[in-house]
Design brief:
234 residues, alpha/beta, 38% helix
């Protein structure tokens, strides 16, 4: 599909690999103008390769979401841009078998900051660029569900994603307006984080995520769903 100046615009924070890169390809195929971020401009970056082929349809920006000054700089660069979708995909995992009694304070703070605090900093700063009927999305996980946690494991990761959901809920109550807010679960995806035994391919997850965002477009409020648009219990 060819790029047009009137094309809808999506910003994907955390798009250098895995699901983020899959989302870039999916939205380009749908005719969107894509603004994608990566922490550094790596040599032979896959984003850079795609950008060189897509011309104006894809622009690549530097953003480490744990650096507030970089969030501010991106916001300044985006001044005058209207987004249809803001998708904060960046996040990290830790040892799923490590209990809360074993994790160091430094690692706990890193996971919580990267998965909960920093995504909301991005949303706080960039959601004003999202159109009144646009969508603000953060990558969450079914592991964030408190009511569904009957087996334990992934203790810090679960806590960080539950905190992400709660912080988003607070933001929606305070400043959501008529926009759509989504905490999305991508499935168990075959990525560096998901591992080679995961049953869902990146392309299938990205397509499902984009479809789910589209299905919720124009619905104000906050929704916790997976890539197949199935509700996840809070």
């Amino acid at each position: 599909m060819s790029f047009a100046e009137s094309a809808p615009v999506v910003l994907i924070a955390g798009a250098s690999r895995g699901i983020g890169l899959g989302l870039v390809r999916e939205y380009l195929a749908r005719g969107f103008r894509v603004i994608a971020t990566e922490r550094t401009h790596a040599v032979n970056s896959k984003l850079g390769e795609i950008a060189s082929q897509k011309n104006a349809a894809l622009s690549v920006e530097i953003l480490d979401i744990n650096e507030p000054a970089q969030i501010d700089a991106l916001a300044e660069k985006l001044r005058g841009t209207q987004l249809d979708v803001l998708f904060v995909n960046a996040g990290v995992s830790d040892d799923p078998s490590q209990t809360i009694g074993e994790i160091s304070s430094e690692e706990f703070n890193w996971v919580m900051t990267t998965n909960a605090l920093s995504p909301l900093r991005v949303i706080e700063k960039l959601s004003p660029f999202v159109s009144a009927n646009g969508s603000v999305v953060a990558m969450s996980s079914a592991l964030a569900s408190i009511s569904e946690n009957t087996n334990g494991g992934y203790e810090t990761y679960r806590a960080s994603k539950a905190a992400l959901n709660m912080l988003m809920r607070s933001y929606v109550a305070r400043a959501g307006g008529e926009r759509t807010f989504l905490a999305l679960m991508p499935g168990w995806v075959k990525t560096d984080m998901g591992g080679p035994d995961a049953p869902v391919e990146v392309e299938d997850s990205a397509r499902g995520l984009a479809d789910t965002i589209e299905k919720h477009a124009g619905r104000s409020g906050f929704f916790f769903v997976d890539y197949q648009n199935q509700n996840i219990p809070w």
